[in-house]
Amino acid sequence: MIIDFHHHLSPYISKPPEKPRAIYAHGIPVSTEHKGLLNIETHIQVMDETGIDISVLTSGPGMRGEFKDARAANEALSSICSKYESRLRFLAHAAPLAGIEAIEEVKRWLEVCPGAVVPSAFGEIGLDDSRLEPLYELLESKGKYLFIHPAISTSETEARQYNAFDLYRTVGREFSLVMATTRLIASGVLDNHPNLQIVMSHLGGGISSVVPRITSYQDKEMWGISEDPIHGRKAKEPFENYLKRIYFDTGGFFGDPRVIRIALQCIPKERILLGTDYPQEIRDAEPIKRLNEELKSQGIDGNGSNLL
Prior knowledge:
alpha/beta; TIM Barrel; six-stranded parallel β-sheet; 12 helices
């Protein structure tokens, strides 16, 4: 069975744009709307062409951290998936900063969803913030996984450093995933929730390329910060041990096989899942076929059926 763990649909966009249209926040492009996000028949056709049996759906507008958007995404995707229940699943879109009502929303959908999805950060608030603890506790208790997608929106302060060249989407999102992975490990979230299953998108923002640097900075005495209550903190185990606990999907790199070869330097092949990011970075069947061929050549099963 081939499962695509990173697949987008936004069926509640009221009027499909005639051509791709960028959505801006604080003066920078943060997402793009286009017809491919709405036509589920085309999605199924591409799945058939590339041998994908099941796709797990998320929706960009539902991952902005706003409760009303998360609820709208859940309702819309539930309706779509009920019509294609043998081919599609969806994740419960979560807005955990909204409090108990938002957690109850996730709990409701976990009856039919394999997990929940959050962005890699909520503006300037990272995933190690204590307000996310109820979500982590819920997912761990239910045996459901958490999918972490690059942040769709950004704060005004963050936007200042991405003020040109579409920098937020080209490099900012990947940086946010490296940050999210490192925060979850270094803060002790994974130590406190040993059975919490995480699927990190985009191969953790390409984290393998900087793992040697991250691990070297875990020697707090060498760097003179062992007594610092904040910067001197570190996880109970060596940093790389946690990369054996997290799943990483292959989305976000347009099907280019080179990033998978880099990822394998630090991430076990058993922890790599197929993610196409269709129909955003990938919008037709050929890159998906190339991605599947690379995974097969590297001996990567990429199945992840235990998560469903």
